[in-house]
Amino acid sequence: MPQGRSGAAEVSRKRGAEPAALPQQVPERKRACWGILTSQGSWADRSPLHEAASQGRLLVLHTLLAQGYHANIVTINQVTPLHEACLSGHVACVKVLISAGANVNAATIDGVTPLYNCCASGSLGCMELLLQNGAHTHTAHTHFPSALHEACKRGHGQCLDCLNRHAACSKILLHRGASVNIGSGGDSPLHAAVRQDSADLVSVLLDYGADVNLRDSNNLRPIELALPGGKSQQLLLAFEVSPRTLCQLCRLQIRNLIGRSRLKQLALLPLPPLLTHYLEHS
């Protein structure tokens, strides 16, 4: 699988193809046939539905869905309109597509999911919608890109607002049970955060049990990638000489026993609020 693409658009879009013609003036019989051709399992390279989702054109999106376009229509690379809406951060379009039956866990041929695209764009609103509707926070294949890894990789933005959005994405994913050590290929989320010298992300990852001894494809540990004298290096050095407390180990073990799919129900347990908050680590 291709690895390490430079931009978010490259991982989920295939440009260069003209979108198919809008079917408003097509006879009713042909329009019905169009609905069959654009149903789930078929593909059209950059359909009008993809374009509307990408550009945030909500009215056009509603119209196309009413005319028979299927919410899960894919391009030849298995990109869905939901991928496009998440990549561009159009919350309203994401909501409409999900209501129309869009698959929140659809993956492209490169393993990219809508949740991954939310992390690429730093869209918290889109991410929350996906998670509320069953999006998986982890991937079973380490060679496929991880949403958490993407959030960490892009965590050091060119402005504070961007930085905060991506850091918040990472915290939400971890809170919902994302695998803290699964990244992209041999690269873990901790490797990605250290490369950006994002001390806040490094600290959060360590709190959620990140393995400081994992090695990337170049056989390097996270601390070996840290900027000399940087905040990330200081955190990792301090962590290596200070083992986790019994309290931290118990918290991680309880979260593991509860399981990813049930972490969001922690608040329903008959526990003191302080303990619930500690287990959630929100």
TrEMBL record:
<comment type="pathway">
    <text>Protein modification; protein ubiquitination.</text>
</comment>
<keyword id="KW-0677">Repeat</keyword>
<keyword id="KW-0040">ANK repeat</keyword>
<dbReference type="InterPro" id="IPR036770">
    <property type="entry name" value="Ankyrin_rpt-contain_sf"/>
</dbReference>
<feature type="domain" description="SOCS box">
    <location>
        <begin position="242"/>
        <end position="282"/>
    </location>
</feature>
<dbReference type="Pfam" id="PF07525">
    <property type="entry name" value="SOCS_box"/>
</dbReference>
<feature type="repeat" description="ANK">
    <location>
        <begin position="110"/>
        <end position="142"/>
    </location>
</feature>
<feature type="repeat" description="ANK">
    <location>
        <begin position="77"/>
        <end position="109"/>
    </location>
</feature>
<feature type="repeat" description="ANK">
    <location>
        <begin position="185"/>
        <end position="217"/>
    </location>
</feature>
<dbReference type="GO" id="GO:0035556">
    <property type="term" value="P:intracellular signal transduction"/>
</dbReference>
<dbReference type="GO" id="GO:0045732">
    <property type="term" value="P:positive regulation of protein catabolic process"/>
</dbReference>
<feature type="repeat" description="ANK">
    <location>
        <begin position="44"/>
        <end position="76"/>
    </location>
</feature>
<dbReference type="InterPro" id="IPR051573">
    <property type="entry name" value="Ankyrin-SOCS_box_domain"/>
</dbReference>
<dbReference type="InterPro" id="IPR036036">
    <property type="entry name" value="SOCS_box-like_dom_sf"/>
</dbReference>
<dbReference type="InterPro" id="IPR002110">
    <property type="entry name" value="Ankyrin_rpt"/>
</dbReference>
<dbReference type="GO" id="GO:0016567">
    <property type="term" value="P:protein ubiquitination"/>
</dbReference>
<dbReference type="InterPro" id="IPR001496">
    <property type="entry name" value="SOCS_box"/>
</dbReference>
<protein>
    <recommendedName>
        <fullName>SOCS box domain-containing protein</fullName>
    </recommendedName>
</protein>
<feature type="region of interest" description="Disordered">
    <location>
        <begin position="1"/>
        <end position="26"/>
    </location>
</feature>
<comment type="similarity">
    <text>Belongs to the ankyrin SOCS box (ASB) family.</text>
</comment>
<keyword id="KW-0833">Ubl conjugation pathway</keyword>
<dbReference type="Pfam" id="PF12796">
    <property type="entry name" value="Ank_2"/>
</dbReference>
